Amino acid sequence: MKRLLGYGLLGLLAFLLFLLLLAPAGLVVGLLDERLPGLNAQAMDGTVIEGSAWGVSWRDMPIRRLNWNWRPFALLGGWLEFRLDTDDPDAKLMGNVAISWDRRLRFRDFSGRLPLARLSELAGQPTPPLRGVVEFDLRELSLNAAGLPQSADGGVHLLNLRAMLGRPLPLGDFVAQLSPATPAGIQGVVKDNNAPLELDGILNVSPDHRYRFSGSAAVRDAGNQALRQMLNLLGPPGGDGRWKLDFSGTLAR
Question: How many CB atoms lie under 10 A from the CB of residue 221?
Answer without folding.
Answer: 10
